Amino acid sequence: MAKLSERAGYAAALAVGVAIIALTIALSDPAAVAARIAGAQPWLIALSCLLDFASIAFFALAWTVTAMALGVRVGVVDGFVASVLGLVADKLVASASVSGELVRLAYVKSRRSDVGYAELLATLMVHRFLYNVAFVALLLIAISDLVSSGGLPHALVFVSALAALSTLAASYLLVRPESLKGVARAAARYSEKLLARFYGGGGLDLASRAEGFIDSVASSVRRAWRRKGLMALASALMLLQWVAGALELGALFSSIGYSVNAWVLLVTFPLHCYLTALPVGIPAALGVTEAGTVALFVAFGVERSAAMAVTLLVRFVEVWFELALGAAVAVAAGVGQRERLLELARNWRVEARVLARGGGGGGKG
């Protein structure tokens, strides 16, 4: 019954997203939108898929290099596979990138049982921090140029500033994980009650374990900043990830024969990605992303039917191409890897029972 309820909720969320898309198309001259998409050049759409692949590759390489800075060997192939599977998880589960990060952590942990959770989590946190910094840097550079030339709509100054400030606030928590100790203590107390309720037992001290875990993460994060050369390389790769994404958007505009300023692409692409990560409760932020992206393009003077056509094309690349890529990667990872992930999940359940009974030494694995 619970599964039926979950499926019904998932279907309802998708239906809401599709309805928003349909309404957005209806307000954008559907005939003109269809004509633009029908006339799009296939080779440029294929190029945008290639650029999307390059963007994912730069993202994964930046993580691999970040992990090296922390003394953790993720590996180029494992980093890429985990990143692709994480993207698929983000598309299927509306969780503001949390599901994708958990998949990345679980995949690498299944491959590297000798590495502790704290070390792996630290690689994700520093990597996400670099991702956010590159996002804000490109956004501010592009906005500065557009403001100086009078090409930035006043309404978007506020939106861009809000996106930058919220990203910087999140980045502070990523680079200073010790600031989360208070939250960790509260979560630990709640977890103790849940574990005692489902598995019995009591007298746990998860709060001190949680603080110890956060201290371990913070120590790993500090270690990364001492490897300046590797961190500089990871930052450069992350900037290339954003540039590849903006070029992907530019290729799609070119495919329908529409010209857009490069700085506009560098502003709209990060803001478009910001929309895809909003926790709106709809898989892939369906509908919300389309409506918001069209509004962004129109605000920059893009003709509405062209804005709608490119939005649908970029979503085709970001959702369907990436889902197909994820399926191919999952098949390539093999059944054996699936079994290892299932074994890891089973081990977590066993560890939960041990913790609930007051046992366990809080080891790395």
Would you kindly provide a written description of the structure presented here, covering whatever features stand out?
The protein is mostly helical. It is 81% helix and 0% strand. It contains 13 helices and no strands. Helix 6 packs antiparallel against helix 11. The longest helix has 53 residues, at 304-356. It starts with a helix and ends in a 9-residue tail after the last helix.
Summarize this structure briefly:
With 365 residues, this protein is mainly alpha-helical. The chain is built from 13 helices and no strands. Helix content is 81%, strand content 0%.
Distance between the termini: 35 Å
Count of runs of 4 or more consecutive helical residues: 13
Major sheet summary line: none
Mean pLDDT: 77
Judged by helices, strands and strand pairing, the structural class is mainly alpha
Name the helicity range: over 70%
Give the overall silhouette: globular
Radius of gyration equals: 22 Å
Give the amount of beta strand, in percent.
under 5%
Unreliable stretches = 354-365
Element-level helix/strand string? HHHHHHHHHHHHH
**Number of distinct beta strands:** 0
Oligomer: single chain
